[in-house]
Structure formats: structure tokens, C-alpha cells
């Protein structure tokens, strides 16, 4: 068993210990300040004997440290250094997670915590239950009030059958042994946890929700957040972005949501008007006559796929060919011809798309494909039209020669 110094004092970042065993790159010590991870929190990093500790884990009560290139032997005394900046960031993040979820749970008692991520790059909670931006924002406000209140964060070890645990957030099936380590934030939250935490909510400094998205199928929602200096910097960036947006929209900050909704509504109306116009233009396409075959061609902006396919099928019912394109986020191309036209649409569509990183598939008389971007839409259309014209003219000449 390893004496876990972080249990009694998570602020220890420098310590000495004796090597108990050295198996390959993995070192076991008689005591350690390195947290091996757990409860969604990433393991610590740092140095042992001046060498980088690249991974920390626990196995049957022993904390193991991965130290590539070491020459340690059993009984040797080593000095350890935990990367304090990283550890302290994770401590603030872990306490911040307890605080944020407890506020979410207070606003929505039926909410269930599914998964936690406490890392240097990402901190989040995944939950099941009804949740919306209004609840998330209110929970964030309540968390900030708790931070400002400088509430004490305390740890106690209580018997597993202690009646007071009925008030604590815990999953009994995850508790091994007869005792439970309980982390309390003032009088507002009590939860079973084996992780490392700050001593006061004031140390969190700041908590900012940065993302709120669906987390299906793992959970219903994921709420990402930041703490401390990172949260303050992001808040400044978001504030500046909001102010620039209000200036561009000619709106007040408090009216930004309404102004953006108006922009989105106008955009939807314009998109619908464009759709109606393009549908009309598509249905009124006038074909070119080449060798007795009607050739329909047209390039449209973000045309509905089904509309394009239906038009291609309709145009090529009798002695006709068509090439139709849609230049939305990606480029889509349809090449088709009636059964009485001798043309390999599948081969042709790949021939014109491949130079631009695109590809297609289909049958002799009907093929579809596309390119990653609409950047070369016009070039592809011109190439397809030229090739189809060549095929139709060749077919016509061969028919005349017969």
C-alpha cells in the first residue's frame, strides 16, 4: 500500500520517498504526492529523481509512476516534484465541477450525473435530464455567488452506514470498503469523492460555462466549463465578440439575442425566396439541341438534392441528356441521359470530378457525385458540358455515317 500524501494535504508538491519496487518503467514508492487520477480527473505529471513522470496509475492499493529511462532500485531514496501549476488547475476544476453540478441539480433535482472530465484542456459534466440554456446560466450565476462567498471546502471520512450520507451525492456501488471520503462545500453540497480539491471556493477564482451541447448517446447533455485565469480570459474574449457583434448589428448588448434571431429569420426568408426562384429556374430550363438530343444544363446555389434528382429524371425521359450542379457547402453534380442516348454517365462524372478531388457513382444512364468544396463548380460544369456535347456530336455523326 502506498501512503497517499495528497489525501491529507493536496497542496504538497515536493516530497521524498523510497523506491519499493521497479518493474520496467513503472516505479512504486512507499509514499507519494502524485494523484493517480480518478473521478474523471486526469493523473498528475511531474518528476522523480529529476526524470519526467509521464503516467500515474493505481493498482491494488499501490500508486505506480511511469518513469522512462530510470535506473532506480528498491530501497533508493528519490525526490519527487508534482507539476504544481497543472495540479492546482485540476484541483480548481474538480471543486468547480462539484459546485457547478450541485447548482444544476438544485435547479433540476431529477438530473443525473453520468460522466465527468477534469483535464487541463477540457472540463465538463455529462448529465441526463431536462436542461436548457436558462438553467445553465442560472446555475453558473449561483456558482459564481458561491465562489464570491469564499465557502470552505472540507473533507471527512465517515462510516459507510452513517445516516448523514443520505444527504450526500454518492453511488454506493462504487464505494469499496467500510468508509466513505466526503467532500463538502460549505452547507450547499456534500458528495462522495476521492479526488483532490482546493480549500475554499474563492480559490476557484472564476467559473465560466463555455459550451452546452447534446451528448447522446452517452448522456442527454454535456456542459463544458473553465475555471480561474482561463475562464477570465475566455470571458473577456466572449465579451469583446459580443460587443463587436452588437456594433455590427446596430443593437444593444441586452438585445443581442433578439437581433441575432432577426438576422436568422431574415436569412431563412431569403433562403426560401432563393429556393423558390431556383426551383422556378430549374423547371424552366431551356435545353440546347445537339445532334437531335436535348441537353439540359444548369448550376444552382445549394439546390435541394431531391429536387435536382427529380428534375434530372424528368428531363431525361425521352431522347435527352442533362448535367445539373448545386454549389452549396459542397459541390453536387448529376449527369443523366435517356435510355436511347449512348453515354456512360458514371464514367463521365468521375472523369470530370477526379481532377478536383471529387468522385461519383451510379449507372450508365444516371450518376451522381460531388467535390469537397464548391470552389471549382463552374470549371467542373464547363468540363462536363463540353464532354457531353462531344459525345452527342460523335453519336450523331456515327448515326449519319450509317
Question: How would you describe this structure in keywords?
Answer:
six-stranded mixed beta sheet, 4 domains, Threonyl-tRNA Synthetase, Chain A, domain 2, Elongation Factor Tu (Ef-tu), domain 3, 8 helices, elongated, 22 strands
Summary of the model, kept short:
With 402 residues, this protein is of the alpha+beta class.
The N- to C-terminal Cα distance equals: 94 Å
**Which CATH architecture of the largest domain would you pick?**
2-Layer Sandwich
The main β sheet shows up as:
7 strands, antiparallel
Q: How many helices? A: 8
Q: In the CATH hierarchy, what is the superfamily of the largest domain?
A: Threonyl-trna Synthetase, Chain A, domain 2
Shape: elongated
Run of helices and strands: EHEEEEEEEEHEEHEEEEEHHEEHEEHEEH
